[in-house]
Amino acid sequence: MHSPESSTMTLSVRTRNLPIAVALLWLWGSVALFAFGPYDYLVRTPLVLYGYLTAANLALFLGYRSRVNGQGAAYQGKWQPRQMLRLSLVLALFIMMFSVVSGQGRNLGFRAALEDPALAYALYGESQGTSFLPYILIFLEPFVFPFLILTAFYWQETKLLIRLTFFLILTVNIMGAVSIALRGAIVFQVITVGAAFLSAFLGGRWKLGVLSKLQITVLIIAGVLLLLAFFSLIYSQRSPGTATSFNPSIGQFPDPDHLITQITPESQKPLVFGAITYLTHGYYGLSLALDKPFVGVGFGVTNSTFLLRNFVRFTGLDVLYDFSYANRLWVENGYPVGNYWISIYPWIASDVTWFGSLIIVFLIGRLFAQSWLDAVQGTNPAAVIVFVVLAHMIYAFPMNNPLQDGSALTRFYFWLLFWWFTRMPQAQTASTI
């Protein structure tokens, strides 16, 4: 099946800039909720915090703008999309069956988790380290991960069996996340599939009539309502504090006189204030990290707990723990990183300093733009995978560094390198699947 002539498409200014517009709206919205929301975070040095956040968002914007007016690149790799999809399909089915079987006895189950999310989440925490699946995924994740993305991207060029398998795996993934009461895993699935569909639609791979657009709109609305219902359940029951709108990171209830507090129905307060806490409290951890004196950098190791832990294990250089802002906040402030967020920025700064983190954010913006162009205008199938990963990373900026475990690291760097070394500037030919 042949792809459309995406390499010859002329992209509008709106299409070129859509990802950065959404990203900045998300990031500035989270900053506004932190600064003017119903919780008083009592930041000690607000000028430093907001000055840094302004610089970080500006760096992301400038990085994006430095590439967004370019052209999408063609694909010069020998591994074709059809082959990627087949391998990913087989491995995704294997991992799905393995995770279902290995989860027996460890997870509470879908229906029971809906009745008692607190117990489901507790069982999930106790089961960590008792399964081989995370270790298997370190090696297999780069090849498992593309299935949902490539199927969504090449949807109108795939066979019915692959589409049905797509729905099966997506459903099992979401049910698995529900069974352990993890909202983040569901958001990850939504961003993964949504970003791939958006790339395909704006790249001309999806030809939709009025009826199809209406059906998709109804499905999106229904999906959003179901997600909100589940998240409301999570915020109400997974931990006792959230049911009373309590923000445990700072030990505060919301300001009763705040506009959001006054206009939010009582039944929706767990959801609204739980979401606000979830989205904003990472900036409080960032403010604590920004107040700390410089003691050294981790040179590529301290941005991830997985990397740091294993590097120290093999080298014995435990002095690197002193360079990790996450570890320093634990030790010096009693701020339990892992239970609470610190945003992505201290993780990066632990490796390259605060100024260096702005350069990294600039480069992320630049890669975000180029992967978007390659996905919607070029013909490199790896580009849409990189774009999806970067979209999720930017979503996580206010909260955490999503590249924490081994599988997330291998997934990101494998496809980043694969995409970069299979790009052919100035796309001229269309890929096939």
Q: What's the arrangement of strands in the largest beta sheet?
A: 1-2
Determine the mean pLDDT: 86
Rg over C-alpha atoms, rounded to the nearest angstrom: 22 Å
Low-pLDDT regions = 1-6, 427-432
Total beta-strand segments: 2
Residues in helix, %: 55-70%
Provide the β-strand percentage band: under 5%
Task: Report, as a whole number of angstroms, the end-to-end distance.
Answer: 5 Å
Query: What form results from the Cα inertia axes?
Result: globular
Please give the largest β-sheet: 2 strands, antiparallel
Oligomer: single chain
Structural class: mainly alpha
Helix count equals: 17
**Which series of helices and strands comes N to C?**
HHEHHHHHHHHHHHHHHHE
